[in-house]
Amino acid sequence: MNKMKQWSVLTLTAISLFLFAGIASAHVTVQPPTVEQNSYQVFAVRVPSEKENVTTTTVKVKVADGVKVSRVEPKTGWKYELESDPSTKAITAITWTAEGAGLSQTEFTDFRMSGKVAEDAKQLVWKAYQTYSDKSVVEWVGGDGAEYPASVTTVTAAAAGAGDSGHGGGTSSETAGGKDAAANNTAASSDETAQPMTADEDSTKANVTLGLAIAAVVLAAAALVVAAARKKR
């Protein structure tokens, strides 16, 4: 086997592994990936269904320490249940359950909620539990580099003079009545167009990666053919 053929075989192997890794890397994540301290946000739990011949029927997410979730967006075809801390009444977990068949292997969806990031938060760790129709559960709770990692939102310092993200600059002791509702409505409104763009960006990146990998495989295969032809001469 000459050097050209050896190189081609190694290239094909490497590209195949890269292509497989790109396809199999879909995780349950929470968007956006970065937020500011002391800001109101709309978070989207992005859930891809990955198993063959079964569907995703239930998704449970534990609210990350450092954020206070106050509202959940209704979603057609799904019902949700809230868990709260008995003493503080704060929402601690949300479970979405499909009213129909659920998500098939080729589908994904977003579950949205709104809340406020604490002024001293450093990062938000979201643990998720994905249940399939065969009753198997994938626990997205691991650390960075784990097979099933928890989604982590990076929290940056609030911009100078932002003052409660532009919602009047009130103190942390302000009541949650109409002002909290207006703040969450403003956050939801501002993110209505931004969130789908995140999905498009993810899709574009995945398509580019897939396209490059396929092109590399084709080139490597062509190199193998050329190498074989030269050997016969």
Description:
The protein has 233 residues and is α+β, with helices and mostly antiparallel strands. The chain has a domain at 29-156: Sandwich (Immunoglobulin-like). It is built from three helices and eleven strands. The chain has helices at residues 3-23, 178-191, 194-232, and strands at residues 29-31, 34-36, 40-48, 56-62, 67-72, 78-84, 91-98, 108-117, 123-132, 137-140, 151-156. The strands form two sheets. Strands 2, 4, 6, 7, 9, 10 and 11 form a seven-stranded mixed β-sheet that branches. Strands 1-3-8-5 form a four-stranded antiparallel β-sheet. Strand 9 and strand 10 form a beta hairpin. The longest helix has 39 residues, at 194-232. The protein starts with a helix and ends with a helix. Mean pLDDT is 77; it is low at 13-24 and 165-210.
Question: Could you outline the blueprint of secondary structure elements for this entry?
Answer:
Layout: H1 3-23, E1 29-31, E2 34-36, E3 40-48, E4 56-62, E5 67-72, E6 78-84, E7 91-98, E8 108-117, E9 123-132, E10 137-140, E11 151-156, H2 178-191, H3 194-232
Parallel strand pairs: 2-11
Antiparallel strand pairs: 1-3, 3-8, 4-7, 4-9, 5-8, 6-7, 9-10, 9-11
Helix pairs in contact: 1-3
Keywords: Membrane, Signal, Transmembrane, Transmembrane helix
Protein name: DUF1775 domain-containing protein
Region (Disordered): 161-202
